[in-house]
Amino acid sequence: LFHNEHCISLTSILIVGIFAGNYTSTTTCRCKVYSSPEQALLAMEMACRPIDGEPPPGGGGRARFVDALALPPQQGGKVVVMTADYCDGPDREAGETLERLDRPWDKWYFERVRERAHGRGLEEWTWVHPARDYIFRYDRGCFWMARPLAFSFRELTPATFFFFLMTDSNLLSRLLFRWLYTAGRLYRVLGRAPPKVVAQKIVAMDIYCPLRHAAMLIDYVRCTVPISTPLWLCPVRPASACHPPGPPGGAAAAAAAEDAALLQPLAPHAAEGPRGGLLVNVGVYGRVADGQGHLHSRRLEHWAAAHRARKMLYSQNFYSEEEFWNIYDKEAYRSLRERYGAEGRFPD
């Protein structure tokens, strides 16, 4: 038994070491600025396409990580597309350095992107980050939701100084309150806040939109929702592509894709069914000063329903029962509840 315990311990250490290896490697991130959402979305689509018809291990396309930030009009309105992959470290001969993101004096990721694209007016650059920092880059500052709306005060008082420390992204606030500025903690804070207040002050949702409608959605958000924060754009494979790998082409592959879509009828990436193409998750996260967040959210829900898009249901939803079942397959939902014994145990 003693010998077996040691074997188990050594095996556990080996397994942990293997997984930890992914977090001790580095990533190279190529950032390119586009003047319009249409150009940026085309670049994202190209980055998601497989090379020579052969997707890399684990699926995906030419880059392992692909996403983008659409800056608000006040900051130039440009879209920065980021494509990244694992690498062996910075190329010292080319002048590359390792850019860390986890220290108090390191700016939040969106601030670094904004500074390069808007502040310096750069069109393209490359960063090398520790892989762990890059993978969790949006956790610090919860994307940008830990940063408030702009405010000003004429006279510095203890109250205004404390408010500045708590809310502004600066070295001192990041040093003192970094434990608070994480996605998980801020999400729990929102969960404890009165739902009515959250609905009035905040618009937070992810909309899975067909690629052909994504630029239209970005323009619609900018024209109708009074937020001054970026929009997060992330390509998403459709449900029909999320099936075990098999021989490409043929009736068997088509049937597998259709089965994969049918197995996820309520998922946001199954909005277009088994024939759907690449989707774009448009993340709208911001605070509104007019106190009409629920009305802006309703408009976005209506837009999504009219353009074959779906929300992720983690956020507040304002659908009527009839509207909800016009979007989702009620029979499939009932079938899932019966299959997994939810009837009589979990509320409908």
UniProtKB/TrEMBL annotation:
<feature type="signal peptide">
    <location>
        <begin position="1"/>
        <end position="20"/>
    </location>
</feature>
<dbReference type="GO" id="GO:0000246">
    <property type="term" value="F:Delta24(24-1) sterol reductase activity"/>
</dbReference>
<keyword id="KW-0560">Oxidoreductase</keyword>
<dbReference type="InterPro" id="IPR040165">
    <property type="entry name" value="Diminuto-like"/>
</dbReference>
<keyword id="KW-0732">Signal</keyword>
<protein>
    <submittedName>
        <fullName>Uncharacterized protein</fullName>
    </submittedName>
</protein>
<dbReference type="GO" id="GO:0016020">
    <property type="term" value="C:membrane"/>
</dbReference>
<dbReference type="GO" id="GO:0008202">
    <property type="term" value="P:steroid metabolic process"/>
</dbReference>
<dbReference type="GO" id="GO:0005737">
    <property type="term" value="C:cytoplasm"/>
</dbReference>
